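Technical note accompanying the year-one report. For the benefit of new consortium partners, we illustrate the data format agreed upon in the data management plan: each record pairs a sequence with a structure-token string. No post-processing was applied to the example shown here.
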Amino acid sequence: MPNTIHSRIAAANLQRAIAAGRDGAQKALTKVAARVVADAAASLSSPAAPSAPGTPPARRTGLLQSGVRFDVRRGRASGNPYVLVGLAGPHAHVGRMLEYGTSRIPSRPFIRPAVNRAAPTVTPTVAREWAAGVQKEARGK
């Protein structure tokens, strides 16, 4: 019988450690996503001249720049955090046309390159924050 109680306590501690790790991962994803959004918005060039196809679009009004957003969510089944980076607001359709192009407009990507630049930092950042969250829980906060 004492083993059963000890096992329940260990399982509860493990669950708290996993939850703390997920919280740390969510914090890390938030940091990385904020960098991606800032990088994508900053890549919009000055309005001096139209941008060349394949390069980020020229900034004209700033509305596209202000529409670059992110949202950190948790999976329904797993509870694991993930991040969405994209365009929101009334000019999101213009951003999608610029990002991917149309049959008449060549693409001028600005979000995908920012995500690609940030990709190498995701795993180390999440691992570091996950470990910090677990260690904090192990110390009793």
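Partners are asked to follow this layout when depositing records. The chain has a mean pLDDT of 83.
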